[in-house]
């Protein structure tokens, strides 16, 4: 171990400053749970407001750390507050907050706010976010895994929240069983890495691997299981079988909790373990990510074409979009094993990070539109439910069009700039053939995205009932759509923030 790193870790062992946002979140979540017990039956307005205020409080704390730009370790080097972690946490707060706004009416109409513990939807959402924050800031495989399980256990409960709904219960069981299998893969891989290095600390592991002090064969075997576990959690092909079933079977509000903010934490977990903990094994894990990326791009886009259920289509879309994230991650290190080149590492990983943020912002709006069109006793998740939306509500049809264009990568939407950033680093790493595959897969994907646009603008109205939406949801949904367009026209600030955060975070 590097003695300087160890000294800093000991000195910061009792420093609670880096974890102040997490501590605030735990206290606030417990307080909300107690306060909610004394609320009357209804929409849980107080619980909703307190949950949003909690997110604002966390954002204020984290923004202060982000603007300071420092990297601080605590709990004996197990937890780190660095620019990348703080930036991802800020977008996590945004994603969870927007999800709660979109979900309020939907969850209330489906009885998810009734009963003595009706506010558990909000509290479980906050504990899901707590797990994500721990994953994002973990500098040791133990807290990363604990954060992953805290997030996953909360999501298992949320998926099954409609206890009288057979499809949701089935989805929860599938998610729980396959999620447990993924956790087993990860734990086995982590144990092998521990056996090869004698440590779970990512900095220590990186130092030992760099000095050739660890058994390479055991490390690679452990790496295979860790990457398989990561692929399960990310939903990459061929470990994607749970994604469409869980997306479709979950209440749409829970699907959004599952499909948006956790992607930021999953990216951070992949970055921490692979890029920070095992950079000298990049040649090995980049080959694994290459296979996962190509399979996800091709199979995700081809299978999405056959879907008429919009949630299921977006699930396969998620799988395909993940392929671009993996392309960025596998383009950061070039050269032979004995002469690795890390010159473009920060650019490649920041492009992958930017793509993840882009996907999350777009997904929020897409599922927001689905929940807006849903009403009591009816789920607006079939493609036919969007027929003639332009005649019912031209503005929200325009918002949905912008979101579909962004997912398809049509300029000048945010999604186009994200794809361009990833393709640029892929070509820069000397893998032009891979960029061609990605572009071809995106052209296939454009078909099912544009099909939604066609149905909204050119088909006859299937449901002429008025759209009743709360004011807060209408405002946030409109801002969500505008943000996707504005960040596509002016991508510079966010791209620069991602690159700056990644450059400051990388230790090599």
Draw up the topology in text.
Elements: H1 3-11, H2 20-36, H3 45-68, E1 72-74, E2 79-81, H4 83-109, H5 120-137, H6 141-159, H7 166-197, H8 202-210, H9 216-234, H10 242-249, H11 252-259, H12 261-277, H13 282-305, H14 310-329, H15 345-373, H16 389-392, H17 394-408, H18 414-428, H19 432-458, H20 471-489, H21 492-505
Antiparallel strand pairs: 1-2
Helix pairs in contact: 2-3, 2-5, 3-4, 4-5, 4-11, 4-12, 4-15, 4-21, 5-6, 5-12, 6-7, 7-9, 7-10, 8-12, 9-12, 9-13, 10-11, 10-14, 11-15, 12-15, 13-14, 13-19, 14-15, 14-18, 14-19, 15-17, 15-18, 15-20, 15-21, 17-19, 17-20, 18-19, 18-20
Explain how this protein is built:
The protein has 508 residues and is mainly alpha-helical. It has one domain (3-505). Helix content is 74%, strand content 1%. The chain has helices at residues 3-11, 20-36, 45-68, 83-109, 120-137, 141-159, 166-197, 202-210, 216-234, 242-249, 252-259, 261-277, 282-305, 310-329, 345-373, 389-392, 394-408, 414-428, 432-458, 471-489, 492-505, and strands at residues 72-74, 79-81. It has a two-stranded antiparallel sheet with strand order 1-2. β1 (72-74) and β2 form a beta hairpin. α4 packs parallel to α15 and α17 packs antiparallel against α19 (432-458). The protein is globular.
